[in-house]
Write a structure and sequence with these properties.
By secondary structure, the chain is of the alpha+beta class. The protein contains eight helices and seven strands. It has helices spanning 97-122, 169-182, 185-201, 206-221, 229-241, 245-268, 276-303, 309-329; strands at 2-13, 29-34, 60-62, 65-79, 128-129, 131-140, 144-153. Strands 1, 2, 3, 4, 5, 6 and 7 form a seven-stranded antiparallel sheet that branches. Helix 1 packs across helix 2.
Length: 334
């Protein structure tokens, strides 16, 4: 067996030094790093000593120059030692290094996707990664030094959303608690819905993002192939998020309006009426709905961790039906 050390790094976009206090788990941390000291500086420039456009909005600067907040991890693992066949000509691919490294990177990228998904559920702001750099070092036959570099690129990354992810001092502990509480089975069960929400966040045009957000809500709160989606979804979002009669009525009416905009965009091909602010408002509703469902799921899993998403969805929807019936009796909902 051979020991492999790996260093993982990447620029964390659209944030500031407030994220340094985050406990990402799995050996990851976030640190301040000046551009001139960045190990993969050439990879984030265009060949003319200029930053590629994706990172322009994530630059920070002080008296010592331009810097970024960078993801860091140092790790190690073992791989099989190469076997030599006398007279055979071999390459790195024959030893299986690339396949092993690809499997490692897939696992790490999946973990990072989860972490940044949870961060963006905790609050808004376009935090995330465009490139993740992996540098492997190992010795073959005990004395030949090898360095293998790979880059994972998130080609769908929305680098045009310039909203910063900023944590107040009192939010750091709350965010760490959120990451800890929801990174396990709760995340796994809701992953398809969370991924739909994240896909909406990555869209650079308002109508497409809007449609993904509506889809995420339908996945979370409606049965499959449910007729009369508009009224039912509006009622359920309102009943889940509203704390007063006025809030319930307001959320219900806004959701009906959002559904009309979505229908115009999807069925009539006219998304011109969906403004940037309406997209953000819709995003916030979806975020709040997913977090509220995660909280309910965690409570259910704390009692019985064998429950499936289907079990929990039935419980949540039945609870909402009762609340909606009461709101209708009170004249709040139609």
């Amino acid at each position: 067996m051979m020991d492999v050390t790996v260093n993982i790094t990447g620029i964390v976009m659209c944030c500031n030094e407030s994220v340094c206090g985050l406990e990402l788990g799995c050996g990851y941390s976030i640190e301040k790093c000046y551009l001139d000291d960045f190990q993969f500086k050439e990879e984030v420039e265009n060949g003319k000593n200029q930053l590629v456009i994706e990172y322009m909005g994530s630059r920070l600067q002080d008296e010592n120059g331009i810097y970024f907040m960078c993801l860091k991890k140092a790790d190690s693992f073992e791989i099989d030692s190469p076997q030599i066949t006398q007279g055979a000509i071999t390459t790195d691919s024959d030893y299986g290094y690339e396949e092993t490294f690809a499997e490692y990177q897939f696992k790490e990228n999946q973990y990072l996707h989860k972490v940044f998904s949870l961060l963006r559920l905790f609050k808004n702001g376009n935090i995330g990664l465009f490139q993740t750099f992996f540098e492997y070092k190992f010795k073959t036959f005990g004395f030949i030094n090898n360095t293998h570099k790979n880059t994972s690129k998130n080609s769908t990354r929305n680098s045009f959303d310039n909203r910063k992810y900023l944590l107040r001092h009192e939010e750091i502990d709350l965010c760490n608690e959120f990451l800890h509480d929801y990174s396990g089975k709760c995340y796994d069960l809701l992953k398809p819905i969370i991924d739909e929400f994240m896909w909406g966040l990555e869209q650079i045009d308002e109508p497409t993002g809007f449609e993904q957000y509506i889809t995420a809500l339908e996945m979370a709160l409606l049965p499959v192939n449910q007729p009369g989606k508009k009224q039912m979804l509006s009622n359920r979002v309102a009943a889940l998020l509203g704390n007063t009669d006025m809030e319930i009525k307001d959320i219900h009416d806004k959701m009906l309006g959002f559904y009309r905009l979505r229908s115009e965009s999807l069925h009539e091909g006219d998304g011109s009426r969906i403004s940037k602010q309406e997209l953000i408002d819709m995003e916030n509703y979806v975020r709040l709905v997913i977090v509220a469902i995660m909280q309910k799921c965690k409570s259910l899993l704390d009692v019985d961790d064998t429950k499936t998403w289907g079990d929990m969805k039935d419980f949540i929807l039945n609870e909402l039906i009762v609340n909606i019936q009461q709101a209708k009796l009170n004249g709040v909902l139609d």
